[in-house]
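Co-fold these.
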Amino acid sequence: MEEYKGITGSEALIRALLAEDVDTIFGYPGGAIMPVFDKLYDFQQELRHILVRHEQGAVHAAQGYARACGRTGVVIVTSGPGATNVITGVADAMIDSTPLVVISGQVPANLLGTDAFQETDVVGITLPITKWSYQVRRPEDIAWAVARAFYIAGTGRPGPVVLDFTKTAQVGKIDFKYEKCSFIRSYTPIPTISEEKLNEAAELINKAKKPFMVYGQGVTLSHAEAELKAFLDKTGIPAAATLLGLSALPSDYKHYKGMLGMHGNIGPNVKTNECDVLIAIGMRFDDRVTGDVNKYARQAKIIHIDIDAAEIGKIIPVDVGILGDAKEVLTRLLPKVEQKEYNDWEDEFDKCAIVERARVIEYEVNPEKGDINMGEVIRCVSIVSHSDAIVVTDVGQNQMMGARYSTFAQTRSMITSGGLGTMGFGLPAAIGAKIACPERAVCFFSGDGGVQMSIQEFGTIMQEHCGVKIIILNNNWLGNVRQWQQMFFEERYSQTRMTNPDFMKISEAYGFKHRRVTRREDLKSAVVEMLADNDSPFVLEVCVIEDGMVFPMIPPGKGVTEIMLNAKEWF
Amino acid sequence: MEQETLFTVNVYSENQVGLLNQISIIFTRRNLNIWSLSVSASAIEGVHKFTIACRTTRRNIDAVVKQIEKRIDVLKAFYYTDDEIVYQEVALYKVQTDNILDSPDFEALIRRHNAQILEINRTFAVIQKTGQYSDTQMLYEDLNQYGVLQFARSGRVAITKSTIERVNQFLEMQERRELELNR
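Predicted complex below.
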């Protein structure tokens, strides 16, 4: 790489970003980051800056971008409130393993610790919610810090990195030469896989009568979709996804049995407690997946494959823990496992699916009368988009319905806030996803609550001509909390009723095409209209049933076999 | 309920600002009380060593140590039970000179405890004792008949009884990895 003599730290930062092949950044200017924004003015051809309407929007957009295309999302904000406004997204990226580099301005180094204007201890605040956070005090440290930031964010189990950039580092002059980081002594992103553990796992798998594979986002993050499919093709093992694992396998794949967890499919949950070998890969046994851990897969031998040593044995004691990258583990495991079929065992999943279809799904997606259900909207969008859209959800009933009733044909098609459950995540994440993959349809499902948590980002969509399809499932309630109040809090609907604005007028104000659907017979034509032009934003408000509920449901604290089919009946 | 044990955690890290904070918040998150803590440079140049004593379950300490090791600037972290290590603490005691000067038993007490007098002047004396918690505590109780003005006890420092030095092995392995990468 070329050397630049006597450039400012701000220019050095931008040249470092370019050296990391960054072409899109999400940000918002302010006092302590102005030298960087000033320099951005000279690089408008090379770097597309997306001006959001609130810093939380910037970080969620960067998350959506990273999740859609796999590249590290980059955020630039100012100090103090700029930095604290990104905290939710940073925490979200940490728990959902999303690669981000967040650059926040900071007061000049000589003012640090003095309660200067817009000073916050950003490193202190972000330590527990980042993979790494570092304060750049001198321009001489920029190349080193940025190179490390990208290396750390994007390798191993990905995650967010925060660089707290003092004004001193931004304005100081240096001779700059950039070198990418490929080694840190104290950090081993890709652990060496133990051959012995592989053999132990293969032996368990080959002897299994009822093996079951559960997989998470680790498969997507390590680009192991094809290897997973090859493994399942050969072994004939049925598999189910966590919420973040969705779309790693196509929905119509023969060994794919559905989603795990609280609102997951019945088969995968029930069979977790009947399998004899449970193979978990790239997932972390979140409590929304396991329910009561004391009743989780006690009968099974457990093989846990993960790249993060801290995950193995954290929640569920394992019989074989394989530390390694999912793609590499699956590749090396493949020749060791036997070609098999488990037709009877797979039939058991399919029997559960038949019950679920008759008792839950039909009511949700094919009702003949009454108000429109959330599930039928989602299913309609999946059908019209030929399962090919990137589905982004907010958090709540829209999310669970989106996860349950969307179908996927390709990977990286489900973007949702899993671990943190951040309302307001969806709209900016959809913007980021659309910017990452403009050729694909991006369908964002939201409730009336969540969309209003980030509704200011309509401005970003307008300014960037971003063709996001916004589907507001409006029931005038905070539906998921309302559901819990109905089921577990004696129908005491505390603070869940929403009085909402006219979403059509808001859409009009931003110049978006829009349509409101209140009758079932208009739904399909509205979805067709929405998806007709991939490049323009569209707001589709669907007035849905007020007291709709997401089922099946494993109530909190229950085991994975304790499933409610509706508010009264158990499976 | 799994039994709680006193574990000694050894953390080896790069010498970076904020490391102590990074490590301590991992205990805080799980509401674990750090029983004693000692931080210093290790025998390896540029490597810092933290010795942390914490009473909890084996399952918990295992998870905590893995989460500590996950921090980017941490090289390695290990945990031990008391039988796997040699460990000591140092305690200092300040007593009034008048109270000990005419005591016939004082000298015998110091000898019996294998303690040292570091400083003595007209007003006070400073006594030092190295040993384990119970040893330094016992001396405190014995000295208290003379009135202890000040008492300070360090965190424990510990050395493993193991015949292999795992940190050195790790660093050698990483050196080889770096060489291979640069080739």
